[in-house]
Amino acid sequence: MFEKIERVPGDAILGLIEAFKKDTNPQKVDLGVGVYRDAKGTTPVMRAVKEAEALLLKNETTKTYIGSHGAPSYGEVVLPMVLGEGSPVLEAGRASVTQSPGGTGALRLAADFVAHQLPGKGIWVSDPTWPNHHGIFTAAGIELHKYPYVDADNRLDFDGMLSALKQIPQGDVVVLHACCHNPTGFDLNQQQWQEVLKVLQERDLLPLVDFAYQGFAEGLDEDAYAVRLLAENLDNVLVTSSCSKNFGIYNERTGALIVVAKNNEEMENVRSQIAIVARENYSNPPAHGGSIVSEILHSPELEKVWREELTEMRDRINTLRRDFVDALKPYGLDEKYAHVAEQRGMFSYTGLTPEQVDRLRDEFGIYMVRSGRANVAGFSSENLEYIAKAVATVNG
Ligand code: PMP
């Protein structure tokens, strides 16, 4: 039966991790992985999470199923976190929330919903985008298309993006990264979002806003600008939210699909369909991560601790971005890489070429994806001088 099955190459990032592990260079640096790292290079459990878990251990009374939409206590804190406290969308009862196994699970729910309930609609993703977008949407049977996002000089190509959006067939789905665009780090400003909104309205497009990094760019509310703008001004919006990064609970698989509909009646109709999609995929989402988030956001003390920790992570990333550019000053390369300080989130399209990336790996033990995408959280005050010198060498 299995004789004819071919082996496919593993994930490029996993290969990178293996190569990094084997490298004996004491100065080696891992800029490949997709998780936050602190100054020590570790991804610790956040204090607020530890405390919430201690409470859960003490107080949890059952492990029974939480239902296809997940725990209501989780949904009721995620909605205001994403859409805003006192959001008119919430007041109007036109938002539905479904707990999901991570942002990835939410994307798959959205994809299956589109495939089943809006047949024939194509889906448009930025070029480049998080590679798993391609896999998730095509696995659901949706035709995938791309719109431009980065120009040949490695800068945000907003004009290219906007004119492409204007050509998209009416009613198609457009995937937008709310903030911290993965892989590039280039985000739209508020005025650009307003222009996008106009095109979405004109062409009656359905936005699917991927919101995997709330709190990692400028702040919890600031980062939600696009989500709230679209939700408050459009009849239909899909939002996939993730708590993996902002709560540091990557392996607990905690996310949500939020569907905004025209009114409460339509929302309930859509919501009933989402329950089916969830049931067909995995029946019920895992509970633990959602319980952690709920515990934290229902407790003013824990929420305060969590917000401080999140701010610390965000500030660290943004400081490292500026420090990287500063470290390149002695080599006259600060202007060439100034965009790294302007980008947001964990990732940066540095503009390093695949050949330069190879040299960084082979000559300096600095690992990143060949597209030149670096995880900025892998920078530290100890390694920045070394990285700057290496970048200057491969630019020489
Ligand atoms: N969307 C984007 C753009 C991401 O970068 C990620 C995580 N790498 C996700 C969604 C999914 O996150 P999760 O781990 O919560 O499934």
Structural write-up:
- By secondary structure, the chain is of the alpha/beta class.
- The chain has 15 helices and eleven strands.
- The strands form three sheets. A seven-stranded mixed β-sheet has the order 2-8-7-6-5-3-4, sandwiched between helices. A two-stranded parallel ribbon has the order 1-10.
- Helix 5 (102-117) packs parallel to helix 6.
- The N and C termini lie far apart (54 Å).
- The protein binds 4'-deoxy-4'-aminopyridoxal-5'-phosphate.
- Belongs to the class-I pyridoxal-phosphate-dependent aminotransferase family.
What's this, in brief?
Homodimer. The protein is an alpha/beta fold and 396 residues long. The chain has helices at residues 12-22, 47-59, 72-83, 88-91, 102-117, 131-139, 158-165, 190-203, 225-233, 264-282, 288-297, 300-327, 339-342, 354-364, 384-395; strands spanning 29-30, 95-100, 123-127, 144-148, 173-177, 206-211, 237-242, 255-260, 347-349, 366-367, 373-375.
Poorly predicted tracts of residues: none
> Can you count the helices?
15
Oligomeric grouping of the chains: single chain
Structural class: alpha/beta
Give the ligands present: 4'-deoxy-4'-aminopyridoxal-5'-phosphate
- The CATH class of the largest domain is identified as Alpha Beta
Alpha-carbon distance between the two ends? 54 Å
Helix and strand run: HEHHHEHEHEHEHEHEEHHHHEHEEH
Helix coverage percent: 40-55%
Number of domains: 2
β-strand percent reads 5-15%
Number of strands: 11
Shape verdict: globular
What is the C-alpha radius of gyration, as a whole number of Å?
A: 21 Å
Superfamily (CATH H level) name of the largest domain: Type I PLP-dependent aspartate aminotransferase-like (Major domain)
State the CATH architecture of the largest domain.
3-Layer(aba) Sandwich
Find the CATH topology of the largest domain. Answer: Aspartate Aminotransferase, domain 2
